[in-house]
UniProtKB/TrEMBL annotation:
It comes from Paenibacillus polysaccharolyticus. This is AraC-type DNA-binding protein. Residues 670-768 form the HTH araC/xylS-type domain. Pfam families: HTH_18. The chain crosses the membrane at residues 12-34, 311-331.
Length: 779
């Protein structure tokens, strides 16, 4: 019999305990979760039915009624404002046409609408599709049946309302009481649309049949129909789907109050109503802000899940039995290799059988000893090889290989033999590694370097090493130099790197060299080509060595473009400023400018933008204080990202500045008026005056229209004409001098504008003044 401390006993107890615990947990979980999940599914289905019902009522009744109001408001075939004016009207034909329009609209929507009424508050007249034309509408016979919406709308500060359901006899003029009544609720809306009830010219009221809503709910919620009610925001019943006694109404009062207090548009909760548990669901109708309230007994859900619970219990019992059988089989199967391993360890260590009390402890001690030996060996190897290799590659790329036998140098790089051709490729991955997160960088870099070197073919060898600036240098060693081979390796390198980092990696290739110790020449060319990756981000492989001719180019971007960029920013001309950015970027990408010079120009544009923003004390809406534009610029990966960033930033800057300037609109207009008054003879175009008050021409024109009530051009013309009139009256000046004194370059145009303003030419005006003076002297 085996000891309880042996591995066999431990495995048996472990497997058996795990199986029992897991099965019991699964049994409990499934019993609780699936039962509740099934109940929850039923409740969600019930809630979904309620939502669909509310959506159907909203679409087929409420929205149609609101659309009828819009159709009547926009209808041109009849005059809705017929009685809106105070004077009497005897246009009987118009009254008939208007009533026929209302009747036609009711006939087209008879499934939901009972009648349509037009009420004119100023004259207390109502024209109805049902009741005809009624003077003194609020005092006439039967007015009690529509007094609720009529009185409330006449004093309402809002433009519309929905009334609760009221029961109206089919014949409101009959003196006979009748049980044959219609349940109606009314939608009333002011006309014109933006007027309130007390300021409206006409009130359009549409009587909606309660039956239309009840039918939808009864068809879509047959099981909940008896326990459903529609209430307004105050909790008062708007429409009861079934007539209920006062005791039944009070029974739902507490849960109804709770649903309203939650303040949600929809929801569901458990509530005890009377002595029975219920599931209360509610859904808000957006058009009216009424709430459909429905209470369903909880037993409705639980009774349907009993079979599920029994099935789960049966499955768990079967799983427990099968698990115990499999545990016994696994114990026997797993103990056999342990027994053989323990025997091998005893033979190697010389341990006798009576010294072993637990097989696992013996195996653990043996592996700990082995692990210590392996770790010590690995630390020694890795501590030296990685550093030697990294230093050797850097020395080669810098052109100063160490003074030691070249055979040892190749061994440190992992090169088994001498190759005939060498080429250096440079891969820019700094931004991609930075985005991957600092905690994962060592793992990502090691995995990437391993993947790159695994791309070596039988007759070629790749050496990959990370540089201090987060770029990768890849040295290709081969016996036959060809552009096809270089292109093939470049594509493989890009594909491997994109899997590990990101898809927009770029790679540049240097020239071929015969000796590995001259690889720094190829590396220098690859570095020079990589400069143009910023300007040409669409090129994944930069191998066109004609780009190096740009390094010696003396071409320059016209300084007028930078000056234009500054001017357009200062005058808030967004389209022109963006156009300048596009022009500069296009010239850099298509021209022959050196890469460093392009970066100088781009940074200058950022500094210009920064200076303009500082001059107006601009603060970015999502940042505290002045934005660090240069820092944002240095984080951009290519010139297209620079263009998009600068365009978006300038757009935000101009929009925010324009919004901020709106708070100073009045003072700015005063400054503009003062400038206009003092410079009537000068250029007073929108561009000229806008630059003086630091506003864009478009915004200055908008301010004049909003604040002064006249256009900018009309205001300037009126001021010039008034000044011209004063000069004509008080000075002995010719018409030509007067025209130039008030800013008109041509006398003919001045005479034309003067005549438009005062009804006569300047010459006639002078003669009229002289005639008046002579008349006064003669008298």
């Amino acid at each position: 019999m085996k000891k309880w401390s042996s591995a066999w006993a431990g495995l048996a107890l472990s497997y058996g305990s795990i199986v029992i615990v897991i099965v019991l947990l699964i049994c409990s979980f499934f019993y609780i979760y699936f039962s509740r999940s099934y109940n929850e599914e039923l409740r969600n289905k019930n809630q979904l039915i309620l939502e669909n019902t509310a959506r159907t009522i909203e679409r087929t009744v409420l929205k149609r009624v609101q659309q009828m109001y819009v159709d009547l408001s926009l209808n041109k075939s009849a005059n809705i404002r017929l009685f809106a004016d105070q004077e009497d009207r005897n246009e009987l034909n118009q009254v008939v046409d208007l009533q026929e329009l209302l009747k036609a609209k009711v006939a087209a929507n008879t499934d939901i609408v009972q009648g349509i009424h037009l009420y004119y508050p100023a004259r207390n007249i109502m024209l109805s599709s049902l009741y005809g034309l009624r003077y003194k509408a609020d005092q006439s016979e039967g007015s009690v049946y529509y007094a609720d919406w009529l009185q409330e709308m006449r004093t309402s500060k809002h433009n519309s309302l929905w009334t609760p359901v009221r029961h109206i006899p089919k014949d409101i003029f009959s003196s006979q009481t009748s049980e044959n009544t219609n349940g109606l609720f009314t939608y009333a809306h002011s006309y014109p649309f933006r007027s309130t009830g007390e300021t409206s010219d006409v009130i359009i009221a549409i009587d909606v049949k309660e039956e239309a809503v009840n039918t939808i709910i009864e068809n879509m919620m047959p099981s909940q129909y008896q326990h459903t009610v529609i209430v307004n925001a105050a909790g008062n019943a708007v429409s009861r789907l079934q007539e209920q006694s006062s005791g039944q109404s009070d029974m739902y009062a507490a849960s109804l109050k709770k649903a309203l207090k939650l303040g949600h548009a929809k929801g569901s909760f458990d509530e005890k109503i009377g002595d029975s548990p219920y599931v209360v669901s509610y859904q808000t109708l957006p058009s009216t802000q009424w709430m459909i309230y429905s209470a369903t007994p909880s037993s409705y859900y639980y009774e349907q899940s009993i079979m599920i619970q029994k099935l789960i219990l049966g499955i768990c019992l079967i799983a427990l039995l099968i698990g115990l059988i499999l545990s016994a089989v696994l114990v026997r199967a797993n103990y056999s290799p342990i027994k053989r391993l323990v025997g091998r360890i005893k033979d190697l260590s010389g341990t006798t059988s009576h010294q072993v009390t637990n097989e696992f402890r013996l195996i653990d001690n043996a592996f700990l000893h082995l692990k210590e030996q392996v770790n010590h060996l690995e630390e020694t190897v890795h501590a030296n090889s990685a550093a030697v290799r990294h230093k050797a590659v850097l020395n080669l790329l810098q052109g100063n290989p160490e003074h030691r036998p070249w055979k040892e140098e190749r061994a440190a790089l992992g090169i088994a033999r001498q190759y005939k051709e060498y080429c250096c490729m440079l891969m820019n991955t700094g931004a991609a590694i930075a985005e991957s997160g600092s905690s994962k960088q060592p793992e990502t870099i090691a995995k990437l370097m391993h993947g790159l070197e695994c791309l070596s073919l039988q007759d070629s060898r790749l050496i990959a090493e990370e540089l201090p600036d987060k770029r990768f240098a890849i040295i290709l060693c081969t016996d036959v130099a060809s552009e096809a081979l270089l292109d093939k390796f470049a594509e493989l390198l890009l594909a491997e790197t994109r899997q590990q980092l990101q898809p927009d990696i770029q790679l540049s290739t240097g020239c071929w060299v015969k000796d590995l110790r001259d690889i720094h020449q190829s590396f220098n060319e690859a570095q020079a080509l990589m400069k143009y990756a910023y300007l040409l981000p669409e090129l994944h492989i930069l191998k066109d060595h004609s780009l190096l001719q740009r390094e010696h180019s003396l071409d320059e971007i016209p300084q007028t473009l930078l000056a234009k960029f500054r001017d357009k920013l200062q005058s808030r001309q967004l389209d022109e400023a963006v156009g300048t950015i596009e022009q500069v970027v296009e010239q850099m990408r298509e021209g022959q400018f050196p890469a460093d010079y392009c970066h100088f120009i781009l940074s200058n544009m950022v500094f210009i933008y920064s200076d303009v923003a500082k001059n107006v004390r601009y603060k970015h809406p999502l940042q505290f204080g002045h934005p660090d534009l240069y820092h944002e610029y240095t984080n951009l990966h290519d010139i297209l990202a620079y263009r998009n960033w600068l365009t978006a930033s300038i757009t935000t800057f101009i929009e925010e500045t324009e919004n901020r300037n709106s708070d100073r609109a009045v003072s700015t207009i005063e400054l503009a008026k003062q400038y206009i008054e003092a410079n009537l003879s000068d250029d007073l175009s929108l561009e000229a005056v806008g630059s003086k008050v630091f506003l864009s021409p478009k915004y200055l024109s908008k301010l004049f229209k909003e604040e002064m009530g006249v256009t900018y051009t009309d205001y300037v013309t009126s001021r010039r004409m008034e000044q011209a009139k004063l000069l004509i009256e008080n000075n002995n000046m010719t018409i030509d001098r007067v025209a130039s004194s008030v800013g008109y370059g041509t006398t003919a145009y001045f005479i034309k504008r003067f005549k438009e303003m005062y009804g006569c030419t300047p010459g006639n005006y002078v003669r009229n003044l002289s005639s008046a003076a002579i008349s006064e002297a003669g008298s």
